[in-house]
Structures are given as structure tokens and as C-alpha cells.
């Protein structure tokens, strides 16, 4: 049988081919509602523009694939951040597609033109990033749920999620999912350095990426409790909290560095004679001002009768998010009633140390295989096998010790443990923000990279009772319908989330 991870990668790639095919077919069959995406005014800078494409029609067709927010991501990539409202679109995606357009796809610039190559780079990058994100989603799900079948079901749902069209277009969803899911996987695997870097990058893709610092805070609280209560080493607890604080600062750093860049360009070196209102604030936060001033984002500001269709459009994902929160809150409540929090914390930390040990030992074995293979192949292979056997036995012993020490809670942990708590809290905050603060129709893609939604949906699909079968049918219809609607409406510049 095909390994589950390989199967997830294949499904993720197949889903991208499907979404791209549907989007291109929709563009061929229907006329775009708004054709302004094809307009490309010259950059405000005095630098000479790139040479035009000899294939004008093809270049225009490729450039017009940047629709809705894709236009705002392509513009900074081509011209830099020219306008105040442009700073709402964080720099990771524009910087990445510039890098691709000037390196891998540079030979296409004389043929298609620079803007078209930027758009093409964005499409290639995001679809590849989604496949990698799906792989990390499966690995993270397996780590948290401890159930291969449940992890696979949730990963399949993620591959065909209702916001699929955004993961295959010039939006930041794919990069955010890649770095947030990858960062969380490495965090719960014990690879803190890699986790910090990836989560910091997620914060430079989307503003809500900075919230991922909360997972480090949660991990630090577990470690501090273990150090202070079980090991009776208060200094070790303080060290864990200080390390988490430094990592949190590092994760927030890209977002606030970009805000400082905006302040420098607009407030210090801006061309306007009068300072912008946000420049005079005690805390001059550009992102918050843009969201409020240009898009009308704010608490209850979207609660208007005319926005009722948008609330209906977002109701499926919000309902699924609320169900996920309730489902896992009940599970955690039952878990805490059955066993002590103390035991849960110990189990979570010991399992994390086992995962970290496995990862480091695998790297050690790999290095040994490389070094011994070039000198004494026969003797080296036997030594590596012995070392691998010892490593496996040690990891297995640690694992069995952990399991035997916590035999009384194993049945309840089939779908997770206390490690579910930060995911539930994160999703609850995101759902509250999406419903009460943001443009509610954005909820479909805003919540689309939250693992508990797919974990809970997969749980419903696997449930044998009649009521769950009806909900399973509705979930499948919802996912399929939004993929089809998104491919048709979004690609032709019609409103969709």
C-alpha cells in the first residue's frame, strides 16, 4: 500500500490540478465581471519600466489572472509599496515572487513581460507551497491526534477545502499555511529553532501569523510547570519562560519590522505635507489604521442588514468552527475529569521528548551511513545497523515507559491530549474575530488553515450513526460546492468570500 504521507501529497497535487483546470475553464467560458485587472498603470518611481512583451495577448491573459487581492500583491512586487493602503499586504509573497521572477523564471521576462512573469511565479509558488503545506498538515495531525486514519481523513479534507481557489491563486494563504503548519509540526516535534523561523515567516505572510507565538507560550507553561512542580527546579522554569518570551518576540518581529518600514516611508519620508492621522498616534500602527480607514474593519461595524448575504456565505465555515470548538472542549473536559492536569502535562512533555529523540537519532543514523559508506562499506553498514538498533531500542524503551506510566489515560487520548488546547483557543479567537470584527465573508479563507476544523469534520465523516451520516453528506456538499463556486466566481472577478 502507498504510505499515507505520499498519498496526501498526491491528493494535494491532484486537487491543485483540479482547481486550476476549473478556474481556467471558467475564464474561457465566461466573461470577467470586472476587467480592470488587465489595467497596469506605470510605476510611480522614476526608474525605467521593463520592456513590453512581444506576445501582448498572452502577456495580458497571464497578467489578468491576478484578481481581487492578487492585484495588490502583484503591484508591490512590480513597483514596491507606493500607496498607504498597499501596506495591508504583507511582504513575504511579493518578495518571494520577485525572487522567482528574477531567477528561475527570468528567461521568460523578454517573452511575456515582467508583470506577467510575476503573476506566473506567484501561481507556481503558491501551488507548490500548498502541496508542502498538506504534507505538514498530515504530519502535524498524526502528531496531535495519534491516529493515522483520522490524520489522513483530515488531510484529504484540507486538500479539497472550501477555500481551495485562494490556495491556487495570487494570495498569501498557501505560504501562510506552509509556514504555520510546518512551524507547529516542528514545535511539537521538539525542533524549536526551525519552528521559530517558520512561524516568524508565517507572520510576514499574514498578520494573524503572529498569533502562532501563543503555541510557544503554551509549550513554555507546560515546561515551567514540569520544572517547578515535578522536578522542583524553579530556575529551570524561569529559563523556559524567558526562552519562550524571546521566541515570541522573534515571531512578532517581522510584522512589527514591516510596520516600522511603513512608518519610515510614509511618516518620515512621505511626500504629503501634512502627517497622516496614524503617524501622530502614541502607537503608530499602520496596519490597524488601514484596515479601519480603507476597509471599514472594526468591532460590529459589519453588522448591517445589507451584509446578510455575506453572513450566509460564511455560515458553513463558522458553524463548522463552532462545532469543532465545542467538540474538542467537551473532549478536553472529559479528559481533565478522568485524569489530572499534572499527568496530562507529564505525558505531553514525555511524548515530545520521544519525538525529538527520534528525529535527532534519525539524523545521527543518516550521517553515520554517509560517513561509513565511503571508507569501509561492509564494516560500516554493520556498525550503522547496530547503532540504528540501539537507537531504536532506546526510543522504543522511552516510548513504552511513557505509555506504561500513563496507561489509564490512553483510551481517552486516541484523538488527542492536552496538546489540543492551544489549537482550540486559537480557533476560538479567530472565529470570534472573523464574526464580530472582520468582513465576515473572509471567514472561509481566514479559517481555512485551522486544523481543528478538518479534524472535527473528519470525526463526523467517520462516525457510524445516522445523524452523523446526514452531517457528513452536508459537509461533502459544502466542500464540493464552494470549490466549484470559487473556481467560477473568483477567477472571473465576481464576489466570493
From TrEMBL:
Keyword check for Membrane: yes
One GO CC term, this protein: endoplasmic reticulum membrane
Keyword annotations of the record: Endoplasmic reticulum, Glycosyltransferase, GPI-anchor biosynthesis, Membrane, Transferase, Transmembrane, Transmembrane helix
GO biological process: GPI anchor biosynthetic process
Pathway listed: Glycolipid biosynthesis; glycosylphosphatidylinositol-anchor biosynthesis
Pfam families, per database record: Mannosyl_trans2
Chief place of localization: endoplasmic reticulum
GO molecular function, one term: glycosyltransferase activity
Membrane-crossing segments per the record: 12-30, 87-105, 117-138, 176-201, 240-264, 310-328, 418-438, 471-494
UniProt cross-references to InterPro entries, sorted A to Z: PIG-V/Gpi18 (IPR007315)
Subcellular location: Endoplasmic reticulum membrane
Enzyme Commission identifier(s): 2.4.1.-
Disordered as annotated region, ranges: 359-383
Membrane topology classification: Multi-pass membrane protein
Enzyme class: transferase
Function: Mannosyltransferase involved in glycosylphosphatidylinositol-anchor biosynthesis.
Family the entry assigns: Belongs to the PIGV family.
Name the UniProt record assigns to this protein: GPI mannosyltransferase 2
Species of provenance: Urochloa decumbens
Amino acid at each position: 500500500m502507498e504510505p499515507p504521507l505520499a498519498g496526501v501529497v498526491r491528493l494535494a497535487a491532484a486537487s491543485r490540478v483540479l482547481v486550476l483546470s476549473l478556474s481556467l475553464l471558467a475564464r474561457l467560458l465566461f466573461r470577467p465581471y470586472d476587467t480592470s485587472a488587465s489595467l497596469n498603470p506605470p510605476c510611480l518611481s522614476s526608474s525605467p519600466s521593463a520592456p513590453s512583451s512581444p506576445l501582448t495577448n498572452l502577456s495580458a491573459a497571464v497578467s489578468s489572472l491576478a484578481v481581487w487581492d492578487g492585484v495588490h500583491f502583484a503591484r508591490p512586487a512590480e513597483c514596491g509599496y507606493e500607496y498607504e493602503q498597499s501596506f495591508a499586504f504583507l511582504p513575504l509573497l511579493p518578495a518571494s515572487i520577485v525572487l522567482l521572477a528574477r531567477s528561475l523564471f527570468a528567461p521568460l521576462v523578454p517573452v511575456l513581460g515582467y508583470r506577467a512573469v510575476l503573476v506566473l511565479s506567484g501561481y507556481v509558488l503558491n501551488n507548490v507551497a500548498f502541496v508542502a503545506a498538506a504534507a505538514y498538515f498530515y504530519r502535524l495531525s498524526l502528531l496531535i491526534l495519534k491516529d493515522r486514519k483520522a490524520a489522513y481523513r483530515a488531510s484529504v479534507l484540507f486538500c479539497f477545502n472550501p477555500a481551495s481557489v485562494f490556495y491556487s491563486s495570487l494570495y498569501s494563504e498557501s505560504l501562510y499555511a506552509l509556514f504555520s503548519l510546518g512551524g507547529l509540526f516542528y514545535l511539537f516535534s521538539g525542533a524549536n529553532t526551525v519552528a521559530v523561523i517558520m512561524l516568524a515567516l508565517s507572520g510576514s505572510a499574514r498578520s494573524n501569523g503572529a498569533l502562532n507565538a501563543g503555541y510557544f507560550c503554551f509549550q513554555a507553561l507546560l515546561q515551567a510547570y514540569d520544572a517547578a512542580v515535578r522536578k522542583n527546579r524553579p530556575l529551570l522554569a524561569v529559563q523556559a519562560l524567558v526562552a519562550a518570551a524571546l521566541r515570541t518576540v522573534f515571531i512578532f518581529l517581522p510584522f512589527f519590522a514591516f510596520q516600522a518600514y511603513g512608518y519610515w516611508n510614509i511618516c518620515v519620508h512621505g511626500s504629503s505635507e501634512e502627517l497622516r492621522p496614524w503617524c501622530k498616534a502614541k502607537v503608530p500602527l499602520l496596519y490597524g489604521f488601514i484596515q479601519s480607514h480603507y476597509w471599514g474593519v472594526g468591532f460590529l461595524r459589519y453588522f448591517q442588514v445589507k451584509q446578510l448575504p455575506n453572513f450566509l456565505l460564511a455560515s458553513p465555515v463558522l458553524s463548522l468552527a463552532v462545532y469543532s470548538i465545542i467538540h474538542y472542549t467537551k473532549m478536553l473536559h472529559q479528559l481533565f475529569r478522568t485524569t489530572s492536569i499534572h499527568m496530562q502535562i507529564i505525558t505531553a512533555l514525555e511524548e515530545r521528548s520521544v519525538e525529538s529523540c527520534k528525529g535527532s537519532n534519525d539524523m545521527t543514523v543518516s550521517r553515520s551511513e554517509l560517513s561509513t559508506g565511503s571508507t569501509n562499506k561492509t564494516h560500516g553498514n554493520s556498525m550503522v545497523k547496530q547503532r540504528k538498533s540501539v537507537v531504536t531500542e532506546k526510543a522504543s524503551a522511552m516510548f513504552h515507559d511513557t505509555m506504561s506510566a500513563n496507561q489509564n489515560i490512553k483510551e481517552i487520548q486516541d484523538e488527542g491530549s492536552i496538546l489540543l488546547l492551544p489549537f482550540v483557543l486559537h480557533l476560538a479567537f479567530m472565529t470570534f474575530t472573523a464574526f464580530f470584527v472582520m468582513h465576515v465573508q473572509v471567514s472561509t479563507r481566514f479559517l481555512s488553515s485551522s486544523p481543528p476544523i478538518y479534524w472535527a469534520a473528519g470525526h463526523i465523516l467517520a462516525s457510524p450513526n445516522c445523524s452523523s451520516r446526514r452531517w457528513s453528506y452536508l459537509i461533502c456538499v459544502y466542500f464540493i460546492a464552494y470549490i466549484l463556486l470559487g473556481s467560477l466566481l473568483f477567477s472571473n472577478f465576481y464576489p466570493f468570500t
